[in-house]
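Practice problem 4.
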């Protein structure tokens, strides 16, 4: 049996850029873009503040990298669902389950995607970020699943699914009530079975 201290020591620590990006994703979710500073990110990543500028010249570069990280995470999660489930209905159900997998965090801070989109959309137009991609990905994927179910209204159903989740996430966060998300998930499950 391997010594656990050797196993922990053998696992390399992520590089500085990876740590900075992970810290940025977490802090942007918990504190918002406006309140998060590069110094906050450096401290959370345990990286000297001056080193941040080697990887990211501005806060906007950090935000863009965080958006890209979310896009990769969403793409990976949807690909994993595709690989694991055979039917479109079971894939859609897996997406609903994914929505509610971390209801406590969503209740505390809001949906990481929805809150980021909402906050960045309020910035001046010349500071546009590709946040729409964060919503387009799951909507397009869900539309493909609904179309595979033979639904001519697949796009509308995909929008309805995302709106139900994002609305529930907002209410859950605002009212600090995780049962809003779990109740919404039950209703979405029933809705999927009746389509």
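Answer key:
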């Amino acid at each position: 049996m391997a010594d656990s201290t050797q196993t922990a020591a053998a696992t390399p620590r992520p590089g500085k850029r990876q740590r900075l990006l992970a810290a940025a994703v977490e802090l942007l979710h918990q504190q918002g873009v406006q309140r998060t500073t590069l110094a906050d990110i450096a401290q959370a990543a345990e990286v000297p503040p001056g080193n941040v500028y080697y990887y990211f010249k501005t806060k906007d570069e950090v935000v863009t990298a965080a958006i890209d990280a979310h896009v990769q995470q969403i793409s990976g999660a949807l690909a994993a669902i595709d690989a694991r489930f055979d039917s479109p209905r079971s894939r859609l159900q897996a997406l609903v389950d994914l929505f509610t997998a971390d209801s406590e965090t969503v209740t505390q801070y809001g949906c990481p995607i929805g809150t980021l989109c909402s906050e960045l959309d309020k910035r001046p137009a010349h500071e546009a970020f590709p946040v729409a991609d964060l919503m387009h990905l799951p909507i397009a994927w869900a539309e493909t699943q609904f179309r595979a179910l033979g639904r001519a209204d697949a796009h509308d159903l995909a929008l309805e699914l995302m709106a139900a989740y994002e609305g529930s996430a907002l209410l859950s966060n605002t009212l600090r009530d995780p049962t809003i998300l779990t109740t919404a998930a039950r209703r979405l499950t029933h809705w999927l079975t009746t389509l």
